[in-house]
Amino acid sequence: MKHKGLILILIGFFILTGSFSLMAQDSSDVGLPAFKPISSKTMTLKYGFKGASVYDNALKKWQFYKMTTITRHKVEGYVNQINDNFALAAGLHEVAVYDFSKHQWFVYKKGGADDSTGMLNKNFEMTKDYVKVKVLNGPFIKYTTVTGWVETK
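== Lipoprotein ==
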């Protein structure tokens, strides 16, 4: 009888401590090194070693995407961009866009961004209607809310 009581107490303890550790995980923690967070009227983007996280003002929560990022100082502001409609997180192996109208990440997984320093202005483009990125040794890709990711010239 004492053993059953002790077992129940231990089970309760592990359930309680497990739930506290789950609550302690922060989906805004993108690791170090990290670029400065950038914001628009609708969201905030954090981009760091562990991946990218968007705070969606409408949902009032962080949406994290784990990826292998590019954290060289010279690419800051290119591989991580934001406006009121989109947040871009371009990585070594994939390119992710957070679409505010759909409140989720959309990921192109066929290749990472071409972060050649001399071509940054041409390789990354963001407007209110689309995000366009050059894939390393590959095509340009373009994201719109209507079409999703499409390979272009």
